[in-house]
Amino acid sequence: MGYPKERKEAILKKMLPPNNRTIKELSKTEGISEATLYNWRKAARAEGRLMPEGDSTPNGWTAADKFAAVVESAALNEAELSAWCREKGLYPQQIKQWRKACEQANDWDRSQTRQLKESRKADEKRIKQLQSELKRKEKALAEAAALLVLRKKARAIWGEAEDE
Q: Average pLDDT for residues 124-136, to the nearest whole number?
């Protein structure tokens, strides 16, 4: 037996903004199992529809929901975007921020490569500094060892007793 398509659509609309009813709430009020409601939402998302998790604020939306909202609103002009946002319970500024985040995410490889290059340069510079410092200390140690050897030889030649 299944549920009529109209009822399914009406319940899915209740999951959308501005209602943002949770699946648990809908299950209690509509008398439909939570598993069925989850499956309906999953199927709607698979069709490419915007189906937020049920958090009343867009900040609680998943990345996939935000991406879907960006894609759905991409072709709209300012007036259409404002009307669409009112219908979904969003602000145009949120869509712009999400779009910018999506663009930056797609440029991740380039920015990651740049960061790795900068990090490698800094590491190479630090390695050069440490190698230079190590050479200086090795020279100082060699000089100190040479002075000790010369001191022992001088004492041996002059016949002085060693204090050590």
A: 97
